[in-house]
Design a protein that fits this description.
With about 325 residues, this protein is an all-alpha fold. The protein folds into two domains: about 15-60, no CATH class; about 80-325, Orthogonal Bundle (MetI-like fold), CATH 1.10.3720. The protein contains 14 helices and no strands. It is flat. It is found in: Cell membrane. It is a multi-pass membrane protein. InterPro entries: ABC_transporter_permease (IPR051393), MetI-like (IPR000515), MetI-like_sf (IPR035906). This is ABC transporter permease.
């Protein structure tokens, strides 16, 4: 056997191990380990500056005596600002107004949004036009729409009283919508419902379109009508979106500020009417903090509102899940 036959071919020779390029290795590690943190860092920086720090600082202010009109009045108040809330008639009045308007706006709003979404989910002519049309109130600036509604509910020349006069109500003595609690609550709740029904309806509609049509066809064969299909099929199958809208509506309804502020004849006072008949918690916080210049007490009110929102939102979410069949 010749030496050429015993000598391994060039193709089968073991190649020496390649030394990795240090620059490429460093770039790879930088791209996989550092770049992701660099990309998400701006969010956390902005959240820390404009979100977390104000919350912590507001908690510190709530435990102090802090008045802008009296810089000498400083020092720790402890829980004194919070205990003061228990005997503050203005706070409980504003809390009652907030819950009253919240109930009149949130419950009818979500029910109407479900019905509108159910109608839009059917085969209609000009479907795109209708879907865009229900969203127009949401796109309208809240100040502009509230000013229009303030004129609509005007005592002497408002169209609301004109409609009531057609059925024989208030012909000689027009209703002053700002004078009483119930009438002002209805007026403000109407503004909120008008703005948010279309937005929630589109959220429900997007969830409804994920439900297979076969489910509705099978229910129709079993004799279920549109109303029964809505509550027995649609609502349970879009439950996550319903819970989402309930939580959002709870947060927004308990923080109501723009509508009652602009509905007042004297918005700068933030008094919510001549007898505080529609003053909300958010208005009272603004008034105490920036009109009465008592920042410590206003901060305590804001923390109380925050805790109330957490409790109410949690209770609403649990009730919604139980109603939807999630045990």
């Amino acid at each position: 056997m010749s030496l050429t036959q015993l000598r391994p071919s060039a193709q089968h020779r073991a190649e020496p191990p390649r030394t990795p390029n240090k620059v490429k290795l460093w770039l790879y590690r930088f791209d996989t380990k550092t770049v992701p943190y660099a990309l998400i860092a701006p969010f956390f920086l902005l959240f820390g500056v404009f979100g977390l720090f104000p919350i912590i600082f507001n908690g510190v202010v709530a435990l102090r005596n802090w008045r802008l009109d009296d810089p000498t009045l400083t020092g720790w108040a402890g829980f004194g600002n919070f205990t003061k809330l228990l005997s503050d008639e203005d706070f409980w009045n504003a809390l009652g107004n907030t819950f009253g308007i919240f109930l009149l706006s949130t419950v009818p709003q979500l029910l109407a949004a479900l019905i509108v979404a159910s109608v839009l989910n059917r085969r209609l002519r000009a479907t795109t036009w209708w879907r865009i049309g229900v969203l127009l109130p949401y796109l309208t600036p809240v100040v502009a729409s509230t000013l229009v509604f303030a004129v609509f509910f005007s005592r002497d020349y408002g169209m609301a009283n004109w409609f009531l006069s057609l059925v024989g109500f208030g012909e000689s003595d027009p209703l002053d919508w700002r004078a009483a609690k119930w009438s002002s609550w209805i007026a403000i709740a109407t503004m909120v419902n008008w703005k948010w029904i279309g937005y929630n309806a589109l959220l429900y509609l997007s969830a409804m379109q994920t439900i297979p049509k076969d489910v509705y066809e099978a229910a129709a064969v079993d004799g279920a009508g549109p109303w029964r299909q809505l509550w027995r099929i649609t609502v349970p199958m879009i439950q996550p979106v319903v819970v989402f809208t309930v939580i959002l509506s709870t947060i927004g309804g308990l923080q109501l500020f723009n509508e009652p502020m602009m509905f007042d004849e004297n918005p700068q006072s933030a008094s919510g009417g001549s007898d505080h008949q529609f003053q909300t918690i958010a208005q009272l916080i603004y008034k105490v903090g920036w009109k009465d210049l008592n920042l410590g007490y206003a901060a305590a009110m804001s923390w109380a509102l925050f805790l109330i929102i957490l409790i109410v939102a949690g209770v609403n979410a649990l009730l919604t899940k139980r109603i939807g069949g999630d045990r």
